[in-house]
Design goal:
nucleotide-binding; 6-stranded parallel sheet; ATP-binding; 37% helix; ATP-dependent DNA helicase RecQ; P-loop_NTPase; Rossmann fold; 8-stranded mixed sheet; disordered N terminus
Length: 840
């Protein structure tokens, strides 16, 4: 029953297994209810290969009612506790195979050599992946005022980007801070918890709704004084009462009071993929964020903006590019690859009772910790009729409490208390909770590395949500269980999970017949009309009411916001700023399309609704494909096909996962992916911060140690003192170079190993660079070929040093005849160049 993979005897796996067993024993000692204890015991017995001596468990399980043990698939005897070999009709198809134990490391970390700045500002000894390292390289070389979009797999360390930015900026400028926009309270609180343990970033805070007014005021004052290095908040908070303080913090320091020391260096938008989908109507403030960034940049033109996500469908990419491109520069890093740690189970049910029985069966047996997701938040199920087959989070939470679970929490939009939400996040991180029942309000980006199971008691309303939520599991790279149990009656008039997913994806799209009178009403109620350059600007009253509406409510304001967001996506106007004064909700806009101000111009609205129709068609197609995958999982590779809906341009490169219903049915086995590839835009060369002591173009340097086998500190010190900020080096010396760079004059100290540049020929950062090559070395020869290719494309960094033996050749010719017009210089010449030596 239990499958152990090839590296079960590795030291790393033994340590992981020992730690997991110790963690479960600790949780078991704290558990008081029989249900919690037996569920934890099952996880423990599973890690012992299916059998454990009773004496090894310091609890009285042998005295418990054996019927209770059998509910969890356990047989408790006087000497041993073992897993039952069950045959149960409640088990979803494929569940037994999926939950078979595999202790191997399913995601191999690349352990890429660090850069000097990583060692200087964090406690990370290396990078997790090629993509993460490429993202950091793009981040630290991006021009001031530019925007960057980064797509990395879930669990790959996107948070490092804002952590590193805050630490660097604060080191250079006291009071410098970073604002991070997060979609959920749970994510903001989890980031706050994580950063509280990082030297230099301990004072980072989350500003969330529902805070005690005094605590909120104190936090805002601390931010204004420059005491908070990273401030997390939702779009609604950023665009609400704190907006004026963000503008104040973005303003040039010399224009502020001396006591107001905060200065925003960058804005990060986490989980940026939801801007396109959530922002249409569910939370329209997401699509107001470009206006906020624009306004902050009007006070600080150097403000950088970084968008982070694990899943960026083409439609989302288009929206982000259109909304956040900057005249100072736009760059993209894309290293999204499917995570393959999951054993996937998908089962549909014709009625709610059958699904609930299967759900009970799975939750009693799924490895802990466990997240159970539903689509509905509230308690709507109390009065629903037999035609409604959906299950809400509050219903399920009450049901599991009735089944005896106490180490459990409910996290949904209805949990409004900040203190309660914060406590749940802390308890979850500290292993005081084994189960969280949640809606999408919990989990997006929450980093608990050892979540072992994610169960969907619904059909998620999009492939992005499904992929993001199963990505909460197995972030430590070990085995994760992903189970999706949903209702699909396939009958008219029945509210099941499939119809709910389809409705959620395709509803809330305003029609032209309703949009035009709403716009006319907003235009009629607008005020403060003025010209800004060649554009008409005005203040829009969100309480404007079209004909037939007699009272403006939040519902009316949201539809008006949706129309303005639609017009912004269609490039008809820009939302510049917003104001939520007491009893007055207004947005300031600039009109891009003058015809929008002329009544009855259908051509303008035809263009607007052509965009809306295309967006709706994409959403409808996407959810239809997703439903087809989940309805017939045995015919496809679920993971690959879902991922292709999110990253379609990579479809030819993705192999089957080997661990889903379709792969199991076809007997397809997991095959490890080759070295992760990525794409990354290279920023154009910018002005140098300090005067260089290097000649222009390419220069050959003869090192004192041509094998690079001795102490590298003198060479790295000479390179950095000459202005070199990036080195490309043989793999075996990369770590030593990074350490030596850390203690040099380098500000960045980027280190790229040879194998990385060979595997990902995406170019080099356009900063002063040195490339170390060995004679008679095949990899160095490959690197040399890449250098020639970069030269032919005009993409070599400037200036460039090639540090190698004078005997090395390219295409049968010496390097001073091919790559450099100058004779080689000795290593001790570094730092003694005069730019006048190279003036013709």
């Amino acid at each position: 029953m239990l499958a152990f993979m090839s590296n079960v005897d590795s030291t790393e796996t033994r340590i992981w297994l020992k730690d997991e067993i110790a963690r479960l024993l600790s949780c078991l000692a704290q558990a008081s209810s029989a249900a919690d204890r037996y569920a934890l015991l099952r996880s423990l017995v599973r890690l012992h290969g299916g059998r454990i001596e009773t004496q090894a468990v310091k609890s009285r399980f042998a005295d418990e009612d054996s019927d209770k043990a059998s509910r969890f698939g356990l047989a408790v005897g006087s000497t041993a506790i073992r897993l039952l070999d069950e045959q149960d009709e409640r088990a979803p198809e494929g569940f037994w195979t999926a939950q078979d134990l595999d202790v191997s490391l399913r995601r191999q970390r690349d352990h890429l050599p660090p850069d000097a700045l990583l060692l200087k500002y964090t406690d990370h000894p290396d990078y997790r992946s090629e993509g993460q390292k490429a993202a950091v390289r793009s981040l630290v070389t991006m021009p001031r005022g530019a925007s960057l979009m980064v797509c990395l797999p879930t669990g790959s360390g996107k948070s490092l980007l804002f952590q590193l930015t805050a630490a660097r900026m604060r080191d250079e400028t006291p009071g410098s801070c970073v604002v991070v926009i997060t979609p959920t309270v749970s994510l903001a609180l989890d980031h706050e918890r994580t950063l509280s343990q990082m030297p230099g970033l301990e004072a980072s805070r989350a500003l969330v709704g529902g805070m005690n007014p005094i605590d909120r005021a104190n936090l805002v004052d601390a931010f204004r004084r420059g005491e908070i290095p990273v401030l997390f908040m939702s779009p609604e908070v950023a665009l609400g009462s704190v907006r004026e303080h963000l503008i104040e913090a973005a303003t040039n320091p010399v224009k502020k009071l001396e006591t107001l020391g905060a200065h925003i260096s960058a804005v990060f938008i986490d989980e940026a993929h939801i801007i396109e989908s959530w922002g249409r109507s569910f939370r329209p403030d997401f699509q107001r964020l470009p206006g906020l960034v624009h306004e902050l940049r009007s006070h600080n033109s150097d403000l950088q903006c970084v968008l982070l996500s694990a899943t960026l469908p083409p439609s989302a990419r288009e929206v982000l590019r259109a909304s956040y491109k900057s005249a100072r520069g736009w760059g993209e890093v894309d290293a999204a690859t499917p995570r393959r740690e999951f054993d996937i189970v998908v089962q549909r049910y014709r009625d709610a009772d059958a699904r609930l029985k299967a759900l009970d069966f799975v939750i009693d047996r799924a490895p802990r910790p466990l997240i159970v997701y539903t689509t509905l938040a509230g308690d709507e199920g109390a009065d629903r009729g037999p035609s409604d087959l959906r299950l809400s989070a509050s219903e399920l939470f009450a049901h599991l409490k009735n089944r005896g679970y106490e180490r459990i929490a409910l996290f949904s939009g209805e949990v409004s208390s900040t203190s309660e939400r914060s406590q749940i996040v802390r308890d979850w991180a500290d292993d005081k909770i084994d189960i969280v029942v949640a809606t999408s309000a919990f989990g997006m980006g929450v980093d608990k590395a050892n979540v072992r199971s994610v169960v969907h008691a619904c059909l998620p309303d999009s492939p992005a949500r499904y992929y993001q939520e199963i990505g909460r599991a197995a972030r430590d790279g070990r085995q994760g269980l992903a189970v999706c149990l949903f209702t699909d009656a396939d009958k008219d008039g029945v509210k099941d999970d499939v119809s709910h997913a389809r409705s959620t994806a395709t509803s809330s799209w305003i029609t032209k017949d309703l949009a035009t009178p709403r716009w006319d009403a907003m235009l009629h109620a607008s005020s403060n009309s003025r010209w800004i350059g060649d554009r008409r600007a005005m203040t829009i009253d969100l309480d404007a009411m079209r004909h037939g509406i007699t009272l403006s409510t939040d519902f009316n304001r949201r539809w008006n916001m949706s129309i303005l967001n639609l017009l912004q996506r269609a490039r008809m106007l820009d939302v510049i700023s917003c104001s939520h004064e007491p009893d007055r909700f207004t947005w300031d806009v600039e009109i891009r399309e003058p015809s929008l101000l002329a009544p009855g111009v259908d051509e303008v609205w035809d263009r607007v609704f052509s965009l809306r129709d295309n967006e709706q068609a994409r959403a409808r197609t996407e959810v239809r494909h997703f439903i087809d995958i989940m309805r017939r999982p045995q015919n496809v590779c679920v993971l690959r096909d879902v991922f292709e809906l999110l990253q379609e341009r990579y479809s030819d490169e993705i192999s089957s996962c080997g661990r889903c219903p379709g792969c199991r049915a076809r007997g397809e086995m997991y095959v490890a992916e080759p070295l992760q590839r990525y794409s990354a835009d290279i920023w154009p060369a910018g002005p140098l911060a300090t005067a260089l002591k290097l000649p222009p173009g390419t220069t050959l340097i003869i090192p004192e140690d041509m094998t690079f086998s001795k102490d590298l500190s003198p060479l790295m010190a000479r390179l950095s003192s000459s202005g070199v900020e990036q080195v490309v080096v043989p793999d075996d010396i990369a770590l030593d170079c990074a350490v030596a760079f850390k203690f040099s004059d380098a500000r960045l100290g980027l280190v790229i190993n040879h194998s990385s540049i060979v595997a990902n020929d995406t170019g080099l950062a356009q900063i002063p660079t040195a490339i170390l090559l060995r004679s008679n070395d095949d990899v160095s020869t490959c690197v040399l070929g890449i250098i020639k290719s970069l030269k032919d494309r005009g993409a070599l960094p400037e200036p460039l040093l090639i540090v190698t033996s004078p005997s090395i050749e390219l295409d049968g010719r010496r390097l001073d005849q091919t790559l450099s017009v100058r004779a080689p210089y000795l290593e001790d010449s570094l730092g003694h160049f005069s730019i006048m030596d190279f003036v013709a």
